[in-house]
Write a structure and sequence with these properties.
The complex is a heterodimer of chains A (about 90) and B (about 625).
Chain A lengths: L9 E2 L9 E6 L6 H9 L7 E7 L7 E5 L2 E5 L1 H4 L2 E5 L1
Antiparallel strand pairs in A: 1-6, 2-3, 2-6, 3-4, 4-5
Chain B lengths: L5 E6 L5 H9 L3 E5 L6 E8 L5 E6 L11 H10 L11 E7 L3 H12 L5 E6 L1 H6 L2 E3 L1 H8 L3 E3 L8 H13 L13 H15 E4 L5 H9 L4 H19 L2 H21 L4 H18 L2 H17 L1 H15 L7 H6 L4 H7 L6 H10 L8 H12 L4 E3 L2 E2 H26 L11 E2 L8 H35 L9 H4 L1 H13 L6 H7 L8 H13 L3 H5 L2 H8 L2 H13 L4 H11 L3 H27 L3
Parallel strand pairs in B: 1-4, 1-5, 5-6, 6-8
Antiparallel strand pairs in B: 2-3, 3-4, 7-9, 10-11
Helix pairs in contact in B: 3-7, 5-7, 9-12, 10-11, 11-19, 11-23, 12-19, 15-27, 16-18, 17-18, 17-25, 17-26, 18-26, 19-23, 21-22, 22-23, 26-28, 27-28
Chain lengths: ~90, ~625
């Protein structure tokens, strides 16, 4: 894995609904350019606070995530590229 | 004459840009297209306090100047003065969502770097306050170096201040724009967050409205049920609420016919006006109420912010069918009309998802099928109850909608495994805050839809009904012959008849299929025109079309006709918009081919099954 590893981090898709966490690192290499770009547009960045708010009704996918002051929907697969540490 | 000063309106999606555009320009708007790309250009005229006019152009929403979609590319190119068909704006009006400054300021910082005279509308300050957020616009103004005006666009608040700020901006001497250097997204984002933090005076931790609503509307069990209920109410309303206005329109056209009959001497001209023009156009305009009700729901669902939630709920299922939640909105719009539905696929970033959505959109039961379904159901399906509150006619109608949806799912599955293979795109959408849309914004949207529909009725449909009337009226039949069969149209339809005979279609249907290529609802006016030309005695002329069909078509034929219309791509506009959106003839031809094949098989199966069952 190319991205620097953070010892206490877990992938965003394993974070419990309602739990606050801070983004430790984002494994940009696993994302397509356009997907990475959109995550950046949504404000995904190291140090930003994220909270999973809702899960999709079918297969708990996609996830609604509060990032900064915005709520965004992303699929589990992409949330997996974001590693967080509990705040 | 110098052109009017051009002010560009820019902002991130969900900043309330369209509402602000409506608030500033009122109904004086023009909707066009940028040349070479399929992006709509919305412009309008804004009048300053002293009466000077300014042209305001509403740019597509974008998160940054690094485009992720054709819409965002237009925004960038207009702002850099590189967009064909648009001059470089003289000034810039940036819209920001007051409660999402951390994010929206990034784009604003990037735009301010362009060096154009700029004003910022700090929009939706009411929603920010509702969420316990107190802001200091003065501080933001100081830090950014451009005027910041607080607005609530949906309530038309702050509009006068904004107008005078635009006035000042246009009067001030302009300095030459600096060279635009590609800015560093991460640096801008971090600067935006610092600024946003500095602007916030206080933030009380209230439980946010949107979050509370979402815990119900996005609940794993309640959420899908509520979505289903909303869709059910929507389709019920389309039928229930439209009955009264439909009868007014019918009465109006009946009066016109009576008037024309009284004024015009009997003969070819009267037949043309009464049977062709009034009959044909009337048969189509009658569906205006249903189309408007459907669009009313879609505009409300979009305006409140619910539409994205629907996409969220549906994403997993759509993903399974080879689409994404993003496809849900275009497909839902296609229930009104596939043309705006296909145009709405522009928001789908992944080209394969987008193409698949375009190819299956015509399977959604559009409102133009309603005339056909309504007439055939009224004529052939007995009006009796099959359960409490459930009528057989309504059930058949519902079944036709379901057939369309199932057909679309199957088609998407097959298409994604054959002609459009490959990995699907992502589902990444912002869930905006819930809000009450301004009725004026909804009214403007409805007005634009009504005009588009009426223009179509007044041009394409008027033209085809007149043409069909002529083809069906000449040459005159010899005594003992049916007019329908001896006319030019009769001879053309004989050719079609040979092809569709095996699936149970008769001469009348064969005759209607050709003009119905213009638009599905023309099938009804075509059959109506033919019967009124064909009717020799006055009494028959007064029977309703449904009564006449009941007497002349066997039931299996009627059912096969319904099945045909679930699938058949009988709409020139849809084919044209598909060509435009896919930049070529390959995909529209594929779409027409596969849909006709499916329609033929479905109608055939229906007919043979019905005959075998002894219906």
């Amino acid at each position: 894995m190319n991205a620097p590893f953070h010892p206490d981090s877990l992938p965003l898709d394993e974070l419990k609904v309602g739990a606050r966490a801070e983004i430790a690192v984002i494994d940009w290499a696993t994302l397509e350019h356009s997907e990475a770009c959109r995550l950046r547009h949504f404000g995904f960045d190291e140090g930003v606070t994220v909270v999973p708010l809702h899960l999709g009704p079918f297969g708990k996918d996609p996830l609604a995530i509060r990032v900064g002051r915005m709520t965004v929907a992303i699929r589990r697969k992409h949330a997996h590229a974001v590693r967080v540490v509990l705040a | 004459m110098n052109p009017l000063p051009l002010v560009a309106l820019a902002g991130s999606p969900n900043a309330g840009k369209s509402a602000l555009f409506n608030a500033l320009t009122g109904a004086r708007q023009k909707v066009g297209n940028y040349p070479g790309v399929t992006v709509e250009r919305h412009s309008g005229r804004l009048t300053l306090a002293d009466g000077r006019p300014v042209e305001l152009v509403d740019l597509p929403g974008a998160y940054s100047l690094e485009p992720n979609s054709p819409d965002e590319a237009v925004t960038r190119d207009v702002l850099l003065g590189k967009q064909a068909g648009e001059r470089k704006p003289d000034a810039l009006l940036i819209v920001l969502d007051a409660s999402n400054l951390d994010n929206h300021l990034r784009f604003a910082l990037q735009l301010i770097e362009l060096g154009l005279p700029t004003v910022i509308a700090l929009n939706m300050v009411d929603l920010a306050r509702r969420d316990g957020l107190e802001l200091d616009p003065g501080k933001l103004q100081e830090a950014l170096g451009v005027p910041v005006i607080e607005t609530v666009a949906v309530r038309r608040r702050g509009v006068a201040d904004l107008q005078s700020a635009i006035d000042d901006m246009l009067s001030a001497p302009t300095c030459p724009a600096e060279h635009h250097a590609p800015s560093d997204l991460i640096r801008l984002q971090r600067r935006a967050r610092e600024l946003a933090t500095a602007t916030v005076i206080s933030e009380s931790p209230v439980r946010r409205w949107t979050h509370r609503l979402d815990s119900v509307l996005l609940h794993p069990i309640a959420g899908p049920l509520i979505l289903a209920a909303i869709l059910f109410v929507m389709f019920q309303a389309v039928f229930a609420w439209s009955q009264v206005p439909v009868s007014w329109i019918e009465d109006g056209f009946a009066l016109l016919s009576v008037g024309a009959n009284a004024v015009l001497p009997a003969g070819a001209l009267r037949s043309l006006v009464v049977d062709g023009v009034i009959g044909g156009v009337g048969a189509v305009v009658v569906f205006l109420p249903q189309i408007l009700i459907l669009f009313l729901f879609i505009l409300l669902l979009e305006g409140t912010g619910y539409m994205v939630r629907a996409a969220f709920i549906m994403d997993k299922l759509m993903h399974w069918a080879g689409l994404s939640g993003r496809s849900f909105i275009p497909l839902l719009s296609s229930f009104a009309c596939a043309v705006p539905g296909i145009m709405a696929t522009r928001t789908i970033e992944n080209p394969k998802d987008r193409l698949t959505t375009i190819l299956v959109a015509p399977l959604m039961t559009c409102s133009a099928r309603l005339p056909v379904y309504t007439l055939i159901i009224a004529a052939f399906i007995p009006n009796r109850a099959v359960g409490p509150g459930i009528g057989l006619q309504g059930l058949v109608m519902f079944g036709l909608y379901v057939c369309g949806v199932l057909g679309a799912i199957l088609a998407a599955l097959v298409i994604r495994r054959t002609v459009v293979r490959g990995a699907g795109g992502a589902f990444m959408m912002e869930l905006p805050k819930y809000q009450m849309p301004a009725m004026k914004d909804v009214a403007i949207g409805l007005w634009q839809r009504a005009m588009i529909f009426l223009k179509r009725a007044g041009t394409i449909i008027l033209f085809t009904t007149i043409l069909l009337w002529a083809l069906a009226s000449f040459p005159k039949a010899q005594p003992g012959q049916r007019q329908v069969e001896s006319s030019i149209a009769g001879h053309i339809s004989n050719g079609i008849y040979q092809v569709v005979k095996p699936i149970g279609f008769n001469h009348d249907i064969s005759l209607a299929l050709l003009p119905a290529m213009a638009a599905r609802e023309v099938a009804i006016s075509a059959i109506g025109t033919v019967y009124s030309i064909d009717s020799t005695d006055e009494a028959a002329g007064e029977k309703s079309l449904a009564d006449r069909l009941r007497g002349q078509w066997p039931l299996p034929t009627a059912l096969a006709f319904l099945a045909w219309f679930v699938f058949a791509p009988q709409c020139i506009s849809t084919i044209a918009v598909t060509r435009r959106e896919t930049n070529g003839w390959k995909w529209p031809l594929f779409m027409v081919g596969y849909l006709f094949a499916v329609a033929y098989i479905a109608a055939g199966l229906t007919y043979w099954t019905a005959v075998a069952a002894g219906l």
